[in-house]
Design brief:
148 residues, mainly alpha, 2 domains
Length: 148
């Protein structure tokens, strides 16, 4: 005959397995819902609309020729990481955590670099802002990690 304690252990193990399986299934369903709700698709669509609009404005003579048009390619990873930050924010129930902060800052850096190169802005004033942002991030990190 079987030992009752072994039967209990087996049933606990099966219960844990079922619980983990349900959690994975729920995470997959959430990711699927995020993709169906827009995900990166709307961001890519927005990028194409902006790039097309810029070219159209250029063709009609409203904006000058961009010598640095290649900078638009920096916009793609920037908007992609901003989209990842939005997704992390949603997954965390609207809480601003470090999972949101990293992609958000990375996305802002890429979008900022795109603006600097595309519009040939004087970025000498921008570098001190990077230092200030890094300092704020260092100050905010302990506060964010303590709250969660």
């Amino acid at each position: 005959m079987s030992d009752p304690s072994k039967l209990e252990q087996m049933s606990e193990t099966q219960g844990e397995y079922t619980s983990r399986r349900q959690e994975r299934s729920q995470r997959r369903a959430e990711r699927r819902a995020d993709r169906q709700a827009g995900g990166l698709g709307w961001m890519a669509g927005l990028v194409f609309i902006v790039i097309g609009g810029l070219y159209l404005l250029h063709d009609f003579g409203f904006i000058p020729t961009f010598a640095n048009w290649w900078a638009l390619f920096l916009l793609l990873p920037g908007l992609g990481t901003l989209s990842a930050a939005i997704g992390a924010y949603r997954r965390n129930g609207g809480q601003w955590t470090m999972a949101v902060t990293g992609p958000f800052i990375g996305g802002l850096l890429f979008v900022g670099m795109t603006a600097v190169f595309l519009f040939e802005l004087n970025y000498s004033w921008l570098w001190p802002l990077f230092l200030i942002a890094a300092g704020l991030l260092l100050l905010a990190t302990p506060m964010l990690s303590r709250s969660h």
